[in-house]
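A note from the maintainers: we've had questions about how concatenated examples are separated. There is no special marker in the raw files; a new sequence line simply starts the next protein. For clarity in this README we add a label.
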Amino acid sequence: MTNEVCLQKVSDACAIIEKQIEQTIELSKYVIGNTLTKFDLFLCPLLNRSIQLSQGFIALIKQRNLTCAGSMLRLQLDNCMRLYASTIADDQNALIDCVISGGKISSLRDNSGQKMSDKLLKDGLAQYDSRFADVYDNTSGYIHYSEKSFYQSISASNGEGYDISIQISKEPPEKVNEALCECADAFIYFTGFFLRMMEGAALSKSALDKELDEEEKNGD
């Protein structure tokens, strides 16, 4: 895929991600609703983090920076996993306190008594979307030094023999373009996945607001 074709696809992807950012802002109004709960202190930073990741991702794919764009995708998957953890936690308040205090979610247990390791959260979300686990595993290669870095920099010679080409440059090679566009598609998909999960929280908040309004009316 040529750089020209890639950048056109990137432009199209950026337009979609910008719309998702606006959807996230709009959704946040319903998550907060008319009352402030402790759970909001967990949800709102996730929404804000998703926006910041999306803004960073846009800048990175415009630069064709696959290493960092892949890392942003992995972090967006992490958003999904933290939100999922809040739905299966044995003690939701303890989960919120753990996050606020800088603790590790993996030290807490889900409603079946298992520790909420990243593997448990990943496998749990894979039950809702079979692609989640594979994308998580693949993008982890951008977080850690792995073959992802090796093959972006080093290429075998097209001719005979054992010659190799090593690129250390500010300009990414064209060979990353296809993977970059796939990364953009995945980011859009899993940002949508995150927003659908968050809509469930917004619906629950709406029901709570309605219940409190009824109680207030009955109290009067």
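[label: protein 2]
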Amino acid sequence: MPNPDDLPALDRRDPESAIADAARRFSNWGKWGEQDAVGTMNYITDDHRARAAALAKTGKTFSLSLLFDADGPQTGWRGRINPVHTMTATGVDAVHVGQGFPHGIGGADDFITMPLQAGTQWDGLGHIFDRGMAWNGRDAAKVVTSDGDQVTGIEHQAARIVARGVLLDVGRRFGDDGELPDGFAIMQAHLEQTIEAQGPTAEVRGGDIVLVRTGRLARARREGWNGYAGGPAAGLSFTTAGWLFRTEIAAIATDTWGFEVRPNEFDDAFQPLHQIVIPNLGLTVGEMWDLDSLAEDCAADGTYEFFLVAAPIPFTKAVGAPVNPIAVK
């Protein structure tokens, strides 16, 4: 396995070389065959799920999702708006207008208009490309067309994302009052020291889903969304690509809009860690997860592992999808 410490020191002026080098070192192309559509989710085996289910000892549950409503974090960037909820039938209709049903029965119906990545969500494997290539070395132009993701659509993940979850509360370990400052690059050393401080239940194993709390969402709740969506935030350093590769985790999620540190560590790059982990590692990435209540409970009982069910809504050929992750302790 490549050692992440072998990566040269980052040159802020040369993202192109750093991205190309990391893509070469940390590629899983072909590991699960030419037809693979789920990438590192292959690390979650049936045995892993069975062991993970045994972690549900108290039955206590935590929803790790933001509320999906018009008061969400989106700003309209690249067409991403907050959900628009419309009622097509109401109790007012039933009581005052009549709905044409016999014997007094009435009802309500509604629909939602929203981007699939408006709130708590998974980035699918068709969401990001690296120099024209999609996951597993495929031509991006042939994988994702105007008809959607023809190969790695999020529907392939519908029954897979059930696993052992591990919370790494980096915000509590290294931040003031549990919150990291914007632009704080979480290095491999920060992750490892958090694991050590939290104890044995925070050990990261192959097939796990790792949740990294920065505290950014807690600040947004206190101060308002402001730049939460697309603005500065703490996040994973580009240099953690090797750790993400070597640990063989199935997925990673954070309480931020972008998962990686913003501004990033190069003078001219956009989401460079995404460019490595999604199309090259085949790693599914979760964003805007609400980890605060779970973190409080983990700190209180000293247990940082749990049974995690985080299936995306299986929109066919979608490159991302909303999710209501449930952690069970």
